Amino acid sequence: MTPIWMRTTHRAVEIGFILVLLFLGVVIVNESVRLGPTWGESGPQAGFFLFVLSIAMILGTLGVAYVNAYRTPDMRPFFEAPQEVEDLLKVGLPIIALVLLIPLLGMYVSAGVYLAFFMAWYGKFRWYSALAGGIILPVALWITLREGFNISMPMSAFYRSNILPF
């Protein structure tokens, strides 16, 4: 018997992705309303940009749903070979690990670890190139976001114990 991921059609994946994006859009709208989606005396409140972007995401998703409702459904299998599922997992699982590491290592260190790992493992870069990328990326992100735009991202335990500036 063929596994379910080999029988899933393009149409089913499109519908599933539309539903996920709509759900995320509604969750983000609710959070932005909680934070305050208006313009205050000193500028935008915390939820203003979240609100605007989530409304744009919902409208874009509804536009895609509308287009998909009136075109001929693509009933071809989403994955045509087992290798495609493996390739998806090779990219998807490290991203899931990255998201899970953010609360522990913070945004900057997690991004550096992810990049170094992915460069060495999937990209087949030499270890010193991967290490350089894993160091340069968090430093560049920190300089750009924290120092340049004064945007605070989740910090690591190294930051809390004064070992790293991020």
Q: Could you describe the 3D structure shown?
A:
Residues 17-154 form the DUF1468 domain. The chain crosses the membrane at residues 12-29, 49-70, 91-121, 127-145. Keywords: Membrane, Transmembrane, Transmembrane helix. This is DUF1468 domain-containing protein. It comes from Mesorhizobium alhagi CCNWXJ12-2. This protein is mainly α. The protein has two domains: 4-71, no CATH class; 82-148, no CATH class. The chain contains six helices and two strands, in the order H-H-E-E-H-H-H-H. The protein has helices spanning 4-7, 10-35, 48-69, 82-121, 127-148, 157-160; strands at 39-40, 43-44. A two-stranded antiparallel ribbon has the order 1-2. Helix 2 (10-35) packs antiparallel against helix 3 and helix 4 (82-121) packs across helix 5.
